[in-house]
Design a protein that fits this description.
single chain; 691 residues; mainly beta; Jelly Rolls; Methylamine Dehydrogenase, Chain H; 3 domains; eight-stranded antiparallel β-sheet; six-stranded antiparallel β-sheet; 53 strands
Length: 691
Amino acid sequence: MDGLLMAQQLQTLSIEATGFLGINTQDSPTNIDTSFAAKADNCVIDEFGRIGARKGTRQISDVDATTAALPLVSLFEFIDPNGNDTFLTSHNKKIYSYVLGETSAINKTPAGYTVTDDNWKIVSLQDHAFFFNRDQEPLIWHKESGTYGLEAFSDHAHATGNVPYANEALAAYGRVWVADVTNDKSTVYWSDLLNGHAWSGGTSGSLNLQTVWTSGFDEIVALAAHNGFLVIFGRHSIVIYSGAESPANMVLEDVIEGIGCIERDSVQNTGSDIIFLSNDGVRSLGRTIQEKSSPIGDISRNIRNSLMATVKRHSGPIKSTYAPKEGFYLLSMPEENITYCFDLKKLLPEGAARVTTWSQINPHCFCLDHSGNLYIGALGGLLAYDTFTDTNNLSATTTYLLEYESNPMDFGRPANLKFLRKFETSVIGNVGENSTLTWYYDYSPSTLNTFNFAPPALEPNSEEFSNIENNRIANGYFENNITNWTVNNLVVHGSGGGISTTINPETLVVRGDSSYAYQNISTQVTTGKTYTLIYDVVEIQGLALPNPDASGAVIKVGNAANDGTVYNSGKITETGSYFHTFTATDDADFITLGAGGTSADKVWYDNIQLYQHDTLNSTITTGYTGAEFSADVNQTGYTGSEFTSGLLVQTPSAHGSGNGKVVTIGLKATIDGSAYSIQRIDIQVLLGRTV
């Protein structure tokens, strides 16, 4: 049979919990769970376990206008004894302070002090903050004469001893600990108890690890404190001491060989564990202690090779944070314009975290405030992680793009051609988000197929509409000729258009021949307001292509007949109930309803109603279970009772095209002010001949 198979039925593949397992670039793509993703950019794993949009960034402080192209590199929140908080940051080889609510940061660099590098490690003890940076004299932030300021250690009136010019610092167990001193990378130093500026006398001291390194040599990269232990991260090993509350009596508990830390600012304490970047991926200290040198349990297991390739390319500092409110660990490499987001709410069975990526924000540093809110230092200023838009200055906002892409799928039949017949997606989010479904075959993105959908909005029969009769600003029931529409305000072009009595009840007839019906509503459409137009199509004659112009619009809103913004496109091919929701982009008087482009085309409209949403909640609890909504605008079969997450469930569908042995599916959504997540994608595929 020349390799041909008998005709086969359509098969359906459901990608449930789409992307739920995060990105997997490590394993063979056609043999892994379809809940893994090949790409999940500007995404997080949301509280319901779905791939969803990350939050946006809101700029709260700028920096010197002349150096706005340079980033904030270090960021720290200092809380004084009265509970007042101040952000301390470095930028353009200067050190700034910023108080929330103020417009700009203030330069606090000590007079005569030369900053050679912005990559500071900042820690606080008592009512002081301490700044450490490689080969630079440490700085002290403290209050003098009623005002907080910054000065070098040597200028501090109460500083004692020779403070090490260290690159790493830790405030823990009542003292400041430092390490990674030039020409001395095996020694840990600590200050006197409760006195971070005292480095001689008292209980200050040091510990040299040259005889502790099991390989004979290593160098200290980072320090951490955990459950009474002092954790010393070498580049190739980890040393753990107990009894750090009394350094002179510390006891060596463990030395872990073969695994170390390669980036100072990758170390984060999660409360129950310590996360860090090693030479073979992002690791959990707890699992590392259990498994010793085994690399199997690293939490970056599913992206290990691609992650480390990015690390190798990146030449600047790598920064991280752990945000308990969000449940994720962020690892940022700004020179590569990528931030890896590791979801730590629940690890996968093999110990790996679910991973997504972020682009566009490009963080250069992070910090958490005392309430656990996340702040980001980036180009141009200080950003707060909230809302669902990004800001590029103190006033302008920008959208950003959520991108999901599956791993290539062969449907368990690698030798057969696949013909995609239909897609049905379930997405959860605000109606204003525009999404694009994509697919391509045989690892060839150059052959990309796309389908754009602007999802439907509010179910007209839902509870939200039951109490908003006062929000109806126009209706066209057409009983007794015209109800609430005046002949003067109803303009119909085309021979045979107008009010029809041949259909019972009376209807509005729109005839083609480049003609449309316009209704001049008594209450204007207002910029920024959201509206829903509801109408019935009771009879169709001819092609019924709405509007013969290039837009093919079903609805136009503008200041003149057949003018303004297009809010829906497609064609009416069957009778039924229709609705469209839109947010007005300008003040306008006219709504245009279309017919076909020839005199043979007619559409009979009835029960036309326009609602304004000014009393509706911006998040709508309603769900759709029907499968009839596609490129056409007929929206039937929705029940409105399936979902209760507070966001709209949308189930648009599209017809597939093309063929190949391996299929890759994607979804893109423009995020512009509201949450968005992907629930599932259903694919109907026909298996063809063997190749």
